[in-house]
Design brief:
The structure holds two protein chains of two kinds. Chain A is an all-alpha fold. Chain A is 69% helix and 0% strand. Chain B has helices spanning 2-12, 15-32, 39-46, 55-80, 88-100, 104-138, 142-153, 155-158, 164-177, 204-212, 214-222, 240-262, 268-282, 294-310, 312-318, 324-335, 342-347, 349-377, 385-404, 407-425, 431-453, 464-499, and strands spanning 181-182, 189-190. Classes of the chains: A mainly alpha, B mainly alpha. Chain A: It holds the Pfam family TctB.
Chain lengths: 173, 500
């Protein structure tokens, strides 16, 4: 039974490595033929290849492609060694909804500080993340969720002299 | 000479100087422990306080902040996988797994002891070999730098984790990321796609925070059970036997730090990783590195802190700042009407001696304040993960924003956080990426500057220093690859015999 399971794990692991290597190989090709020509401006006055701004990106991309190819061959022909993550704990039963909520909260951290201000955004996200993590005690949720962002704000704004965005509270400060 | 030393002692032993060092180290440890706030930022923040102080007091305050900041970076690296400084990213490789095993106290104490010993040895080197080592550093031109960086990059092999090819790909991707921004020679755009925020390249602090700290936050919300087993009241300590067995590693790492620190621009990150790579290479159990080997913590911290005193060598002996921190300290010297360099050793020798005495004492102060900091910071590990991680994320956002006061850096941090999480999931080590990213600009800059000096490729073989680095680069790469291949073969044999 366990042999069958380890065989399945090995097959799955091998397939994962093959997909990783193939995707990396494909990405290096896209990088070499599309991204570098579009993203690097090479002046006409460049005399020697190593002085060109595109020289190192091309060399590095070739290196990535080469090692991806070696990894692909290794994944196909050599015995699979299970990674550390493969043997670790499984995912949370509601991991999809949790990840969606996390992504939403990270986007709030990125998009709302200019409007709401950094301290208020930090309070909202911190309280929400603690609640998602399983915290139900209102005292902890509000105490930590409000107290810590205020303290961190005071440190950054008044000790480290970082001008944090205040959004709605800009005129109050 | 003895008279000058006596005057130096007299000049140093004032309450103001002792307070300045103590306050500086404490401030440095605290600021260094906050992700996003670096030792450089702490020194810059402390600079205005030196305006009205005596020259010796002012300089010692800044040196104290710098040294405290370098050690402080390791605290959060060990406890929450959020390195306070780039060099501390090496410390987390073994420090964080130790914390996961409930041995955060042991990791933090070893980091402190290694830091203090390395700092002390680095200070001794500063005092006794300043002029000698500074002369050697002056012999470094672009080709010599290029080979030094090539040698440093061979460490990627040692920190590749479970797969050598994936580690090398990770390192190359880091190098590739470092090419984003305006071209150094022609000023043309590379991968900026007309985005003004990318013209100066990707900021390393948001990248560092994103790559190492954010994946832990994401992972917590994805996993069934948090893998971090918190052991309250962690009483783990470094035993005398452990310290003794790590002593060779610490001393070797310190000297690696001294040599790298003397060379302007090489940096503590390279020293930490080189020291770590050497420790792993010479270890009897290299397979335990990256899984919570206490020697790994000692090696990286020794390399990291070995740089601290040595970066002052080119500053004091030649008047050349080796990095941003020493550039700020140079500014402080100049504000006090002093010009570091050979003339200072003639005109202001008593001030030099007073500073040397203060710098030596700073190692002892670091030990005391570090012990105190560990006692309080170690309690972070007792905070439940569902409360701690939202706070970590908040520090990540505030710290990333603080770098340039722009939300773009928060976006960079989040983007590299997602990349770091994907790398974690596909078992690709993030440390080689960071190593490539930090050393990338130096690598390319010196490659192209060499070609600008001479269009002939023979410039790369022009001096004995070049040849020494060529030989050790080839040897290091060969030995590293052979060891990794042997380890992989041994794992496959074990798997085969297990299934048979």
């Amino acid at each position: 039974m366990s042999d069958t399971r380890s065989d399945t794990d090995a097959r799955r692991g091998r397939r994962r490595e093959i997909i990783f290597a193939a995707l990396t190989l494909l990405a290096s090709a896209v990088f070499a033929f599309v991204v570098i020509p579009a993203g690097v401006t090479t002046p006409a006055s460049v005399k020697h290849l190593p002085l060109s701004p595109a020289f190192l990106p091309y060399v590095l991309t070739a290196g990535v492609g080469l090692f991806a190819l070696i990894h692909l061959l290794e994944a196909i022909f050599a015995a699979h060694i299970p990674g550390e993550d493969e043997a670790s704990l499984g995912t949370h039963p509601r991991w999809k909804s949790r990840v969606l909520m996390l992504v939403g909260l990270l986007l709030i951290y990125l998009l709302l500080p200019d409007r709401l201000g950094m301290p208020l955004t930090a309070m909202l996200v911190t309280i929400a993340l603690m609640a998602i993590g399983g915290e139900r005690r209102p005292l902890i949720l509000l105490g930590v969720g409000i107290g810590v962002p205020v303290l961190v704000y005071l440190f950054f704004a008044h000790v480290a002299q970082v001008p944090l965005p205040m959004g709605l509270f800009e005129d109050w400060m | 000479m003895l008279e000058n030393i006596a005057t130096g002692f007299e000049m140093f032993f004032t309450l103001g100087n002792l307070l300045a060092i103590t306050a500086g180290v404490c401030l440095g440890v605290t600021v260094g422990a906050i992700p996003g706030l670096t030792a450089t930022m702490a020194v810059a923040l402390a600079l205005p306080f030196t305006f009205n102080l005596d020259p010796v007091t002012g300089i010692l305050l800044l040196v104290g902040v710098y040294k405290g900041g370098v050690f402080g970076g390791s605290i959060t690296a060990i406890l929450i996988r959020a390195p306070g400084t780039p060099a501390a990213a090496c410390t987390l490789l073994d420090g964080y797994p130790l914390a996961q095993k409930g041995q955060a106290g042991k990791a933090l104490n070893m980091a402190l002891y290694a830091s203090c010993i390395a700092d002390f040895l680095s200070n001794l080197s500063l005092i006794f070999f300043a002029s000698l080592i500074a002369g050697l550093a002056l012999a470094f031109g672009p080709p010599e730098y290029f080979w030094l960086i090539c040698f440093s990059l061979t460490v990627v092999i040692s920190i590749s984790g479970s797969s050598l090819t994936k580690g090398l790909i990770s390192g190359l991707l880091g190098l590739l990321t470092s090419t984003i921004g305006l071209d150094l020679v022609y000023g043309t755009q590379r991968f900026t796609f007309d985005n003004f925020n990318l013209m100066g390249g990707v900021s390393y602090i948001p990248l560092l925070i994103g790559l190492f700290a954010l994946p832990e936050v994401i992972d917590f919300y994805v996993r069934k059970v948090a893998p971090f087993t918190v052991k309250t009241a962690d009483k783990s300590r470094v035993s005398l036997a452990e310290l003794k067995s790590s002593l060779v590693t610490i001393i070797r790492g310190s000297f690696i730090g001294v040599i790298i620190g003397t060379i302007p621009g090489a940096g503590a990150t390279a020293a930490a990783f080189l020291s770590y790579g050497e420790a792993r290479r010479t270890s009897k159990s290299p397979e335990t590195f990256g899984k919570g080997n206490i020697e790994g913590v000692a090696a990286s911290e020794a390399g990291n802190n070995g740089v601290a005193g040595a970066t002052l060598i080119p500053l004091l002996a030649l008047g050349i700042p080796g990095d941003v921190v020493t550039a700020v300290i140079l500014g402080a010297f100049m504000l006090q009407g002093l010009t570091p360099g050979p003339l200072m050793f003639q005109d202001n020798i008593t001030i030099i001696y007073a500073i040397f005495i203060g710098i030596m004492l700073s190692s002892v102060v670091l030990l005391g304040s570090g012990k105190l900091a560990i006692r309080y910071f170690a309690r972070i590990a007792d905070i439940p993960r569902h409360i701690l991680l939202p706070i970590v994320l908040m520090f990540c956002v505030f710290g990333s924003y603080a770098v340039q006061s722009q939300m773009f850096d928060v976006g960079v941090m989040l983007a590299f956080g997602v990349l770091g999480y994907i790398m974690m999931k596909i078992d690709m080590a993030a440390a080689p990426f960071l190593m490539g990213f930090i050393l990338g600009p130096l690598f390319e800059d010196n490659l192209r500057r060499s070609f600008l000096i001479s269009e002939d490729i023979t410039i790369f073989f022009r001096s004995p220093i070049c040849w020494i680095f060529i030989v050790i680069t080839i040897l290091s790469a060969f030995v590293g690859i052979r060891r990794e291949l042997r380890a992989t073969r041994a794992k496959r044999d074990a798997l085969r015999s297990g299934s048979a």
